[in-house]
């Protein structure tokens, strides 16, 4: 069997088209969706991510502001900027790019963002809303993974076993909650799991979100399973690759997401979806 690809670029394009149409409607009513992106320091990967986020805003007709600060910015100064953006009616979403310099407490900064503008879905209130099934912003990467499942007719996972590899606050934990909300039976595996393959071999859906190459190989996958690869690594030749052995697993799985062109573009797309929803809710 050769797995079918879940094309994150094509799905993103389709979703961004809908976002652009709804953004145009809001703009016509005098409420153009607005995103503020804050970058502190010179982390090269962060600079690329932030540039892509701001560019994507322009592509769907959002207003965006990029605030770049020197790594010497104090925590108090950053908190003051967030407070000003919380009060700014032209800004519906606030994103502080992580990681922050070591002298700034990430947690304190995220908690300073108004939950109504927390389009990253990282605030404790957003995580709590997801846990208890209330309205809130969902973390963009796992939200994008759910949209990919939806796109292959797997919106409802009743009777399916989903295995998440990784337990980060940004991906693994919210992913498990979203899969549970979709009625899957969910197992979360991590660095303390004794026999990872034992779990993954039983899975109908596997989400790999570890940040390490070849965490999942063909012998660990049940024939026909759906494999979603959140990883973003470099191989020995410097080429972008995910967490799973794509070439090997492709012969076993039913569906697989490529890297690049899989989950990556979906993350920014869901940021746009969240920002649009923040702007729509601001009028309620
Ligand atoms: N750093 C790496 N990924 C992310 C993300 O999704 N949001 C923010 N704010 N920072 C990140």
UniProtKB/TrEMBL annotation:
GO terms for biological process: L-histidine biosynthetic process; methionine biosynthetic process; purine nucleotide biosynthetic process; tetrahydrofolate interconversion. Homodimer. Keywords: Amino-acid biosynthesis, Histidine biosynthesis, Hydrolase, Methionine biosynthesis, Multifunctional enzyme, NADP, One-carbon metabolism, Oxidoreductase, Purine biosynthesis. GO terms for cellular component: cytosol. Catalyzes the oxidation of 5,10-methylenetetrahydrofolate to 5,10-methenyltetrahydrofolate and then the hydrolysis of 5,10-methenyltetrahydrofolate to 10-formyltetrahydrofolate. PANTHER family: C-1-TETRAHYDROFOLATE SYNTHASE, CYTOPLASMIC, C-1-TETRAHYDROFOLATE SYNTHASE, CYTOPLASMIC-RELATED. It catalyses: (6R)-5,10-methenyltetrahydrofolate + H2O = (6R)-10-formyltetrahydrofolate + H(+); (6R)-5,10-methylene-5,6,7,8-tetrahydrofolate + NADP(+) = (6R)-5,10-methenyltetrahydrofolate + NADPH. Pathway: One-carbon metabolism; tetrahydrofolate interconversion. This is Bifunctional protein FolD. Its EC number is 1.5.1.5, 3.5.4.9. NADP(+) binds at residues 166-168. Belongs to the tetrahydrofolate dehydrogenase/cyclohydrolase family. HAMAP family: THF_DHG_CYH (MF_01576). InterPro entries: Aminoacid_DH-like_N_sf (IPR046346), NAD(P)-bd_dom_sf (IPR036291), THF_DH/CycHdrlase (IPR000672), THF_DH/CycHdrlase_cat_dom (IPR020630), THF_DH/CycHdrlase_CS (IPR020867), THF_DH/CycHdrlase_NAD-bd_dom (IPR020631). It comes from the Bacteria. GO terms for molecular function: methenyltetrahydrofolate cyclohydrolase activity; methylenetetrahydrofolate dehydrogenase (NADP+) activity.
